[in-house]
């Protein structure tokens, strides 16, 4: 079973880092997003983090919002050691209440819940008794600011040694600050876009108050990540990893290639259900284009053989493809490991590359409640039983758009950097019903035309994901004066920012007409084209 190994140069040791302690708010990850956008590096940990276990010192700490009430018996509380770190602290919503609770247990349920827009009135104190530091959080903001609130609890009174720095009609302590220490609390959410000047507030905190350097840039990240990989893998260590042609695995692979050259072995498994010409294209881009040491395994027959006869259970298709993939990757890894042995330039394969992104990490560490156990991060490490591979995850600190920026920095072609997501089971779950080579051909050709037209219309980047699916029914048509009884292609195209909810894309009629005309004319076996106008929910993005 693979295990994570101590990281020789974690980013929080290189970059000034703001620590976000998550109390379970649905917006916690947005705090980290906003800080990153300000080029300030930050990491999120659950609110239960014991600070003595932290091997680094943050430049400042943000306590997030959360669904609990601080006065509940089982409410989560921050390690009181946070107040001994001698760094600035900002509490947001529950975080504000948590600070107040620490300074005098003065939080109770309000009579009115406050949910939505509110007008913040900033109160400034000048240099007087507080030396002016209390004004720093709202520096540069107008005295009236639109903010977004979502809370039911409120302070019963101002804690000792604090001053009010902002009020709203409903919240007399919408902003508070300690008179001598850099502790701030705000009842509103600066991380959501409904608080237009929220980012300024976070900037005031991170940059002006914590004095965090704004040096989290992709080129800095590349240099430091390459150094980190080299230190981790050592002079001779070798790494293996699967690539799919998607942006994450390609960027991760390119980073490995830059760091350790051919001691990184990329494996592309052609499962027979990739897009039209895809295996060939990915091979060319990764090898000739990016210089990656790539092995392509054509396993189409094994995959398609096992999919034969599986008609009405999409889960079964997914399982067959997943298991066959693991089997083939394992065989290939063992073969490569055997060949790699005994060379004086390189040692054994010890590492498995994974393209884990920060949202997966956040998902696994975010605070799920006082009684809920925190889910450990899933990995495929276990799949290489017996090889004892350790995991290497060079993208684990990055968000998707940061990965794209990194890809561009590394010279990866734009077409690949902006590629729509493609599911692991590929075309197999876009052929509804039984997957046969003939059905795959039809779905592939139709998909190719649809995507080609989307690109030609300049819509590819606007649309988040698009594909053609082959329906398992036949319809009657008339082609060349002859009655035909052939299949139906369903087109799907959605816009979404997070893939959790999605809406179908409103193409204009002329565009749809052109796509439909081409598919019926050019793809043998299709006599009708329909457009899927279901949003998610209730639909899913893929059809199986
Ligand atoms: N549960 C707390 C309240 O209702 C905090 C809410 C929040 O952090 N958004 O006031």
TrEMBL record:
Subcellular location: Cytoplasm, Cytosol
GMPS ATP-PPase domain mapped to chain residues: 216-419
GO molecular function: ATP binding; GMP synthase activity
Keyword Nucleotide-binding: yes
Reaction equations catalysed: XMP + L-glutamine + ATP + H2O = GMP + L-glutamate + AMP + diphosphate + 2 H(+)
Ligand binding (ATP): 244-250
Pathway(s) it belongs to: Purine metabolism; GMP biosynthesis; GMP from XMP (L-Gln route): step 1/1
SUPFAM superfamilies referenced in this protein's UniProt entry, alphabetically: Adenine nucleotide alpha hydrolases-like, Class I glutamine amidotransferase-like, GMP synthetase C-terminal dimerisation domain
GO CC entries: cytosol
Superkingdom classification of source: Eukaryota
Keyword Oxidoreductase: no
Broad enzyme group: ligase
Database matches in InterPro entries: Class_I_gatase-like, GATASE, GMP_synth_C, GMP_synth_GATase, GMP_synthase, GMPS_ATP_PPase_dom, NAD/GMP_synthase, Rossmann-like_a/b/a_fold
Pfam families per UniProt: GATase, GMP_synt_C, NAD_synthase
Free-text function comment from the UniProt entry: Catalyzes the conversion of xanthine monophosphate (XMP) to GMP in the presence of glutamine and ATP through an adenyl-XMP intermediate.
EC number of the protein: 6.3.5.2
Quaternary state and interactors: Homodimer.
Protein name: GMP synthase [glutamine-hydrolyzing]
